[in-house]
Automatic annotation (TrEMBL):
This is IPT/TIG domain-containing protein. Residues 61-132 form the IPT/TIG domain. InterPro entries: Ig-like_fold, IPT_dom. The lineage of its organism: unclassified sequences, metagenomes, ecological metagenomes. Coiled coil: none annotated.
Length: 283
């Protein structure tokens, strides 16, 4: 069997005829520094085997490894000192979480809310009262761009607000609606944020792509749903259905239909024909 710091981590190995064998094991949660790896068998005692020292260095892991501004990011630390306190997490050198304490095995876990920052890779590091940042193996978190629409559905003429995060810093940016540019002359701030608005133009109904693109090529889309309910069908108000007029002489007939309205400005085109197939139209 193989032991790590006195704990059995692998069993069941059988030596070859020449007495050699090999195996692997997962390093258990450990404090930073050296830990003894030993082995023994049915005819070989641990004291007969020359010890090997395995050195644990502090490190971090994040989940997820990519995300949007405002996401909750989980961070696990291992290999810190026993019960080490005062541990902090930094994002590109700026503290985003503090007052963390490791357990007896030098392990800790916590989370932080991803603050506003530009698109791309960002360094996650950590340090504590007994562990310096340069001793900790850094990890990387990738920030993704996104846009949020408000409202997400509506009618022609509605004011659509667009808020973007995670874009390139201080770059010109355009917003398009169904591939037609509706906002220009806009720039992101130093942290890749922007905010703007536009009126929903006339066009097709249903799901419409609203797209923001900065001059470094960062492009993100979101869906605006244009209402799809047609206006009510106008009904003949005068003359009444089935009524007759003009048996003798010239009679002027006035046609009138009920009024209908639509929030998006959709209207009907009226045609009048004496033929059911509208081969000839009078109006």
């Amino acid at each position: 069997k193989v032991t790590y710091a006195g704990i059995t981590v692998r069993t069941g190995m059988v030596a070859k005829n020449d007495g050699s064998w090999n195996t692997t094991f997962v390093v258990p949660s450990s404090t930073k520094g050296g830990h003894t790896v030993d082995a023994s068998g049915s005819t070989t005692t641990a004291s007969d085997v020359a010890d090997v020292t395995f050195t644990v260095s502090p490190g971090l892991s994040v989940e997820p490894t990519s995300g949007y501004v405002g996401d909750e990011i989980e961070v696990n630390g291992s290999g810190f000192a026993t019960n080490e306190s005062g541990i902090k997490i930094t994002l590109d050198g700026v503290v985003v979480k503090s007052s963390i304490t490791a357990d007896a095995e030098g392990y800790w876990e916590t989370s932080f809310t991803l603050p506003t920052c530009v698109t791309g890779a960002h360094a996650i590091d950590s340090y504590g009262n007994m562990t310096i940042a340069t001793d900790v193996s850094d990890t990387t978190l990738t920030v993704l761009a996104q846009i949020v629409l408000s409202p997400k559905s509506g009618n022609v003429g509605d004011n659509i607000r667009v808020k973007g995060t995670g874009f390139s810093g201080e770059k010109d940016l355009t917003v398009s609606y169904d591939l037609v540019t509706v906002v220009t002359g806009l720039s992101t701030d130093a942290d890749g944020n922007f905010s703007t608005s536009f009126e929903a133009p006339k066009g097709k109904s249903g799901e419409i792509n609203v797209t923001a693109m900065d001059t470094k090529g960062v492009t993100v889309s979101a869906i605006f749903t244009m209402e799809t309910t047609p206006p009510d069908i106008p009904r003949a108000a005068s003359p009444k259905d089935g009524s007759t007029v003009g048996f003798i002489g010239d009679t002027k007939v006035t046609f009138d239909w009920t009024d209908v309205s639509d929030q998006s400005g959709v209207h009907y085109a009226l045609e009048v024909s004496p033929q059911f197939d509208f081969g000839i139209t009078l109006v």
